Amino acid sequence: MISKNWWWSLAGIVSFIALWEIGALAAGSDLIFPGPLPAARRFVELLQSPRFLRALGGSFLRVLLGILLSAPLGMVLGIAAGLDKRFSAFLSPFFSVIAATPVMAVILIAFLVFGSERTPVFTAFLMVFPVMAANAMAGVRAVDPKLRELFALYGLSRSETVRRLYIPAIKPFILGGMRSSLSLCWKVVVASEVLVQPLLALGTGMQRAKAQFETPELFAWTAATVIAAALSEALFTLAATGSGKRRLAA
After folding, report:
1. Average pLDDT over residues 151-169
2. Which domains does the chain have, with CATH numbers?
3. Nearest Cα to 75, choosing from 188, 189, 176?
4. Which pTM value belongs to this model?
5. 199/188 Cα distance (integer angstroms)
6. Among 66, 93, 64, 90, which residue's Cα sits nearest to residue 77?
7. Looking at the predicted structure, is the pLDDT value of residue 247 above 80?
8. Residue 152 CA to chain centroid, in angstroms?
């Protein structure tokens, strides 16, 4: 049976497409603002292009590397900061500087140091790492103090307490952080690609479409990015849910 929420989601999608079409009609030219149909047609053409598939693979790899580099380090430092307020105070200036620095400035500086291929990965790492650390820190601090006292009463070591108490406790915070980080990572990686234009990248496709005044193609590249980010998040949620069910069944 289809839930009522599904119908509300469908209504939202239809409304979005209708508003898009109205905007395109008001613009009066596909060169300025194409409607959903020209953009969809160009998107289907792109899907059949080896260039698009290679670009999608390049961007996906950069997102994956950004997550794989930032998530473990963010978790470790976040747990350490959650356990020790002095270490939290030590990290605080780093996080403040990262949060206050414009993403575009980070991209431009990183480009000078790392070149076009590695800049999107570094930028994604720098943006995602504080999110993961903050989530891990919040998870550690949310642990019930009575449970901490109980573990201390039984004389468990620090490493044993982290493994048996803190890591299970922060899991919901980490999963939430990973879900939001995936979307953030796609946005940052593609924004970096638009600026530094690595060889195989969705952002490079966007930049070239813009330079050639291929507005429907620009919309198609953008739609591909949005769909890729949504699919990544959905697959991660599915994997995390499946893992949780298997653990409960075991």
Report:
1. 85
2. 34-241 (1.10.3720.10)
3. 176
4. 0.86
5. 17
6. 90
7. no
8. 37
CA 137 to chain centre: 19
* Amino acid letter, residue 188: V
Lookup result for tokens 């193609």: 217
d(CA 240, CA 232): 12
pLDDT band at 31 (very low <50, low <70, confident <90, very high): confident
User: Is the separation of the CB atoms in 46 and 52 below 8 Å?
Assistant: yes
Q: Is the pLDDT of residue 244 over 70?
A: no
The CA distance from 128 to 182, in Å, is 9
CA distance 33 to 26: 9
Rounded Cα distance, 212 and 215, in Å: 8
| 140 Cβ neighbours under 8 A, 6+ residues apart | 78, 79, 82, 83, 166, 169, 170
List, in sequence order, the alpha helices (H) in 48-201. Answer: 50-83, 85-100, 103-141, 145-153, 158-161, 167-196
Token code pair at residue 41: 């047609």
Summarised one tens digit per residue, pLDDT across range 61-107 is 999 999 999 999 999 999 999 999 999 999 999 989 988 889 989 99
pLDDT, one tens digit per residue, over 184-220 is: 999 999 999 999 999 899 999 999 999 998 999 999 9
Q: What is the DSSP letter of 163?
A: I
The total of other beta-carbon atoms located within 10 Å of residue 192's CB is 32
